[in-house]
Amino acid sequence: MRRLGDISIRYKLVAISTLISVAALVVASGALIAWDQVRSRTELSNNLQTLTKIVAENSTAAVSYFDTDAAVGTLQAIRAQSGIEAACIFDRNGLFAKYAANEGGACPSSPGADGTFLSGTSLWVVAPIVLENQRIGTIYVRSGLQEIAARLRLQMLSSLIILIGAGSVALILSSWLQGLISTPIGDLAGTMQAVSDRKDYRLRAVKRANDELGGLASSFNLMLAQIEERDAELLAAKAELESRVEQRTEELRNQLQETQRTQEALVKVNAELVRSNKELDDFAYIASHDLKEPLRGIHSYSGFLLEDYGGKLDEEAHSRLETLMRLSQRMEMLIDTLLHFARVGRVKLAHEHLDLDEVLHEAIDSLRIRLTELGVDIRIPRPLPPEFCDRTRIGEVFQNLIANAMKYNDKPEKWIEIGYENSDGPRTYYVRDNGIGIPAKHRESIFRIFKRLHPREKFGGGAGAGLTIVRKIVERHLGRLWLESQEGEGTTFFFTLSPDR
Ligand code: ADP
After folding, report:
1. CA–CA separation, 342 and 3 (whole Å)
2. Which of 241, 237, 234 is nearest to 199 (CA)?
């Protein structure tokens, strides 16, 4: 069953106004009827008292002379008054004379006390009959209330008819007038529903009058206009955003294609580089390997010549042959270095988890004699951590860097510090010395193979390949090698063993 509150506002308005009208009518007619009843009873009571008094006065002679007929005659005069049921005169001996309008109009056996009395169906008055201030009898007059009851019934019936008529009029009027309120509300609700269903903020509510509902419709329309405006702005912003996103997507797509093309080209170049690097390594390996045999031949034959024909040769030829032997020896050393370099590039790295501190100490041990001779102070602030790398190659890195740090030092108190730094990226190892330092202009060229900054025999000599090999090993571990140096004060070589993050 539908709740009362769910009923349409139109019916509610009709019901409310009809109910109010009916209720007002019921209250008004109820009050009128009640007032009329009270007034009728008071009037009846007053009339009956006056009548009783007149009859009492007119009966004094009849009662004092015991003239019953005269008394009855006086009583019969009451007939003119409608509603009288009985009128009785009592003397000292009891009932003296009586008048009864009908069969029910019996007199009581005794009149009772003086006064006016009301029962459900009748009203009666008891009054004294007085002669010269002496009570000679009592008069009792009783009237029925039928007239008042009939009046009440008539009033109620007419009230009911008026009520029905007025109710109907109220119903018709309120059915007609409710439109003044329910129609604009219905319009507003309909517009709201349509806006919410269709999301169309161009719709507007109809303003029917300049009352509060009209104001409501205007405010609602204003709100719709603002929403419409904002909607339009939003749509424009959305369109703008979409076009920007589209434009950016297109740009990104182009960039992506460009990057892909570059990447593909890079992959090709890389493959080409790998191939040519390998070819170069192979070539260096094969060439140096193959060059060694004839070189050894030159060296041996120069030796034979000196041994077998030494006596027949003059001093200059002797010296030239010795130079030839020295040069071929040096060339062999260079070829060996080249071969080693080529091998470092070709051999597969054997990565393992190892104790780098141990590797460092092995490298130091291999250089121990020279270090002691030169009185180099080796400083290791803290043990090196474990690392994932190729044991032999990293040992070689430490050996080369420590050997250089030891060699290129002209200070009376030499020291070398080996350690690592905790940085954000991969761990950075370093080998620091207080040696001669490296001029800024040579900081790149020293990594070229066979590049030396000093005359051949100075600082203990060397092939000029140590740093080239160190760089190759570090790069094969995907790390980086760089240096910081202050001429005359020292050099620090840094390296990492994994890619930068
Ligand atoms: P080599 O030591 O055989 O000459 P390297 O490749 O190891 O070859 O070094 C190249 C050059 O770099 C050296 O000749 C030297 O001049 C310079 N160098 C290397 N290490 C240091 C260092 N710790 N201090 C100063 N100079 C150095």
Report:
1. 97
2. 234
Both structure tokens of 9? 């506002």
466 CB within 6 A, ligand 1: yes
Distance 444 CA to ligand 1 centre (A): 12
- Long-range (24+ apart) CB contacts under 8 A made by 209-217 are 209/180, 209/184, 213/181, 213/184, 213/185, 213/188, 214/184, 216/184, 216/188, 217/184, 217/187, 217/188
Residues in the chain: 501
**Strand 94-100 to 115-118 pairing:** unpaired
Mean pLDDT for 136-150 is 91
pLDDT in tens, 417-433: 999 998 777 899 999 99
- The SS3 assignment for 141 reads strand
Tokens of 258: 């460009």
The reply to whether ligand 1 has any atom less than 6 angstroms from the CB of 29 is: no
Closest CA to 142 of 222, 208, 44: 44
Helical spans, DSSP H, in 348-487: 356-366, 368-374, 391-407, 466-476
User: Residue 222 contacts by C-beta under 8 Å, 6 or more apart in sequence?
Assistant: none
Q: Is 405 touching ligand 1 by the criterion CB < 6 Å?
A: yes
Q: Please state, in angstroms and rounded to a whole number, the distance separating the CA atoms of residues 368 and 5.
A: 104
* Inter-residue contact 63 to 96 (CB < 8 Å): yes
Please say if the pLDDT value at position 178 is more than 90.
no
Q: How many angstroms separate the CA atoms of 59 and 320, rounded?
A: 198
Beta bridge pairs of residue 486: 490
On whether the CB atoms of residues 174 and 121 are closer than 8 A, the answer is no
Residue 368, CB-side half-sphere exposure with 13 Å CA sphere: 5
d(C-alpha 129, C-alpha 57), whole Å: 7
User: What spacing in Å lies between the alpha carbon of 274 and ligand 1's midpoint?
Assistant: 28
Question: 408: Cβ below 6 Å to ligand 1?
Answer: yes
Q: What is the CA radius of gyration of the chain?
A: 69
Phi, then psi, of 178 in degrees rounded to 5: -60, -25
What is the residue with the minimal CA distance to atom 1 of ligand 1? 464
Closest to 462 measured CA to CA, from 392, 393, 406, 394: 406
In this prediction, residues 240-256 reach a mean pLDDT of 93
Token pair recorded at residue 199 = 């999301």
479 C-alpha to ligand 1 centroid (Å): 20
With vertex at residue 225, the alpha carbon angle to CA 223 and CA 226, rounded to the nearest 5 degrees, is 65
Per-residue pLDDT, 100: 84
Terminal-residue alpha carbon distance, the chain: 73
Q: Are residues 489 and 411 in contact, defined by beta-carbon separation less than 8 angstroms?
A: no
